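User: Hi! I have a protein structure encoded as tokens and I'd like to know what sequence might fold into it. I'm fairly new to this, so please keep things simple.
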């Protein structure tokens, strides 16, 4: 497999009226269309998109008036395929992500007016911030926390080694059921075929440090971050940058929360 490509043979592509449907061949088109027509349970809704759950599928569908959708999807076509391309590529690389079901493009001749991304839910899983909170609430020992962080570091290094860069690698976007295996979500933020620079590495480490620093001390976090570093970087030089970046990130987030009348949420209640 060529770096940052994936096998087109993984999926079939069929036309149904205005729809171009890329899908897992194990799933019937009729099933996809039936679930697509279902209102399901809305999880998140904005001007540009709606996310809902239908059975054990998550369906993310673009929204907005036809003019805005035409502009976004025709002139920013690759951006709107990013989640699907990342899902397919990482799946073939052996990285755990929600199983891709289908990517549906709504097309007029020469124009794109919308899309739908369908993937399986991660039933019975929690994000790693919530998982860490539960471990601490249960009073587990230091060895259990270290083992969890070691497993997480290995999963993150496996992701980085594919050549994919996840621009929002915070704990809320990494899920687990048992603290051993990990799934990555929010794949709109994944960029393929790009260099993992020190600037990008630092951004990821700030996100991860910010996810855990309220729950555990640097005695556990510094070794965790160290396992994510190449041998050419000195932890003693690196960690002050991470801490400074985390404090700036937190100030920025808290300013947003203040405007919204919110406080930092308890990880166990997310």
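Assistant: Happy to help. Inverse folding works backwards from shape to sequence: for each of the 270 positions I chose a residue that suits the local structure. Here it is:
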């Amino acid at each position: 497999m060529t770096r940052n490509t994936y096998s087109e043979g993984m999926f079939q592509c069929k036309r149904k009226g205005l729809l171009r449907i890329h899908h897992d061949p194990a799933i019937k088109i009729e099933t996809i269309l039936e679930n697509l027509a279902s209102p399901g349970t809305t999880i998140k809704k904005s001007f540009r998109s709606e996310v809902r759950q239908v059975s054990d599928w998550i369906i993310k569908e673009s929204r907005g008036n036809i003019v805005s959708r035409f502009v976004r999807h025709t002139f920013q076509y690759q951006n709107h395929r990013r989640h699907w391309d990342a899902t397919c590529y990482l799946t073939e690389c052996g990285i755990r992500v929600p199983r891709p079901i289908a990517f549906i493009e709504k097309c007029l001749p020469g124009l794109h007016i919308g899309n739908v991304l369908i993937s399986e839910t991660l039933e019975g899983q929690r994000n790693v911030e919530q998982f860490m909170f539960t471990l601490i609430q249960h009073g587990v020992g230091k060895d259990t926390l270290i083992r969890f962080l070691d497993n997480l570091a290995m999963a993150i290094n496996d992701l980085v080694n594919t050549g994919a860069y996840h621009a929002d690698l915070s704990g809320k976007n990494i899920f687990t059921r048992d603290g051993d295996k990990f799934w990555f979500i929010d794949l709109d933020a994944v960029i393929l075929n790009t260099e993992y620079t020190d600037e990008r590495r630092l951004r990821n480490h700030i996100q991860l440090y910010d996810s855990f620093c309220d729950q555990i001390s640097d005695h556990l976090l510094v070794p965790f971050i160290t396992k994510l570093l190449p041998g050419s970087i000195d932890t003693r030089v690196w960690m002050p940058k991470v801490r400074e970046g985390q404090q700036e990130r937190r100030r920025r987030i808290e300013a947003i929360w203040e405007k919204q009348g919110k406080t930092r949420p308890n990880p166990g209640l997310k």
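A useful reference point when you look it over: The chain has two domains: 8-120, 126-269. Feel free to ask if any position seems puzzling.
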